[in-house]
Amino acid sequence: MSASAMPFAEDSPSGPAVPAEVAAFRSDYRVRHLPRFYSGWLHFAVTTTASLSIIAFAISRVVDPLWLELCAVPLSFLVANLGEYFGHRGPMHRLRPPFGVLYERHTRRHHRFYTHQAMAADSAKDFHMVLFPPVMLLFFMGLLAAPIGAVLFFVASPNVGWLFVATAVSYFLTYEWLHFAYHLPAGSLIARLPGMRTLRRLHTTHHDPRYMQRHNFNITFPICDAIFGTYRRGS
User: How many domains does the chain have?
Assistant: First the structure.
């Protein structure tokens, strides 16, 4: 994915005017929290390249998997969907120690930077408030994917362990890519892909202050939202 495929370049604003309160918050955030030499496209590239490298390495370690071992892929996907749901519904939207930094970044900043009336980034600089910091990939690998994968490596089989790691990191990257797509201008090529309109609508509904604490916590696929009764189609 290149900058030329998007409706704005690194420093050129685009999209409709945002409400004054949101515009003021965005301006203040850029001054107070945006690193001086931040590049949105570099951020995107680092997340994508690092994730794909881990996925490729994990897959390369899988040798002649049995069909039962391959069942680790859909099961890992469902576990990841469950983790995404409760991680979003829980610490990202409810202030609970020791995860206050997640609540601060997501509820107090992300949801004020992007509201249901202003979902699109003004420029690539605003990817800073969409993508997880690169350190989150280290956190995700070091505290979640790697330890669980190691347990499965020894308890089940090496193939199961590597398949879990590949699936978990693939899910993380899917999360980042889809969330990124939801905050692109509506006229972008990505926003017009099949199915994207529906997913963007669900996420826009979640950004409505009336619903953000109660509906559409799955950023990727609304499986757990449907199971736990928090799915809301929106308008």
Answer: 1
